[in-house]
Amino acid sequence: MRHLVIAVRIAAVRLGFAFGSLLPLQRRVVLATSHSSTLGGNLAFIDEELRRRHPAIRIVVIAHRPARGVRGRVSALVAALSAGYQLARARVFVVDDYFFPIYVVDKRPDTTIAQTWHASGAFKKIGYSVLDKSFGADELLTSRVAIHSNYDICLVASQSAAPHYAEAFRQPLGRFVSRLGIPRTDVLFGDRVPQMKEAIRRRYVIPEGRKVILYAPTFRGDSVINARTPEDLDLRTLQQGLGQDHIILLRLHPFVRERTRIGADLQGFAIDVSDYPDINELMLVSDLLVTDYSSAIYEYSLLGRPMIFFAPDHEAYERERGFYFDYRTGVPGPVFETTQQVVDYIRAGEFDADRVRAFALASFDVADGRSSSRFVDEVVVPGLAGRPVLPAETREGDLAGRSEAGTALH
Length: 410
What we know:
Blueprint: H1 2-21, E1 26-33, H2 41-53, E2 58-63, H3 69-89, E3 90-95, E4 112-115, H4 139-142, E5 153-155, H5 162-169, E6 176-177, H6 193-203, E7 211-215, H7 235-242, E8 246-250, E9 270-272, H8 279-284, E10 288-291, H9 296-301, E11 307-310, H10 314-320, H11 327-330, E12 335-336, H12 339-348, H13 353-363, H14 371-384, H15 395-405
Parallel strand pairs: 1-2, 1-3, 3-4, 4-5, 5-6, 7-8, 7-10, 8-9, 10-11, 11-12
Helix pairs in contact: 1-3, 2-14, 7-12
């Protein structure tokens, strides 16, 4: 059955692409995601930058979230046809994750395809790196589809992470560039930060005078459709130990469809902020982050604030997904397995700021609030003009651009 589903999806994409290829390329930018019904992260920041500075450029948004059952398959078929057509018509096509239609066509020579990815660092394994795991693509898919192919440029936060992405995508190292920065980090810098913080505090009625804990676990499960949230962190134990001077903002992973029920006894301490579109903005109002395996740790490190890792299922997650570095020694904060340990650590207040800062410096070659602008100037505008997106860059050449672009850390 799965053979048939893959074959039908491939046929749908190629049909849409064949039809679009009969027509000339257009000066348009497609921003595409296959995991959400709206743009977020890098794509949202690129979209905002384009509309602000280049309102005449036509932008096409493809935002499709997978669904279960017959309706989900029909929706996916229609999305595949549309994506194939748009892929054939656009001069610039930008994605932020795995995007199936790109991998099953021979792209037109004058089309630029940019992969911005949604995780700043090489943390959890992805792509071809997880063929031996229960998560992600398997050999049935990769025998039919050259996943992560056809990219002209891939953004990475640092050249130290580039070899891991090159392995995961099976792409030449020269296609991975860090000197542009990561667009979604722009929100952490600039004059708009105070206004955003105030707006979030009003929206969720966050009281003054309390420390704010942002709890942002990643999802569990072997597919986007079946994503679920862990339930090991005991909110009531947190409330008993920290409730007098802390509150907790609960932000589930966007793939998770079921919301956490917060009981009446937790009102005033726990606030569900999962409906907020940008986790990076939520970071601004928090004093510390509690997570498990979320790549949000990279952006959070730019703020220089403490992080705590709650990972009672570390060994199981290692088997299911795996990491690019040793988890316990590589993350920028202590790893705990019980809620009481988290309470005790927060109450003690002895945080290692140097560890967080060192992690940020190692993880980002550029972070200065101008990444979206550089991406538009150096990828989108040349791509629309039919010029090569960027010359192939060696690792040393990309690092040389670091001093020109600049690095700013909070």
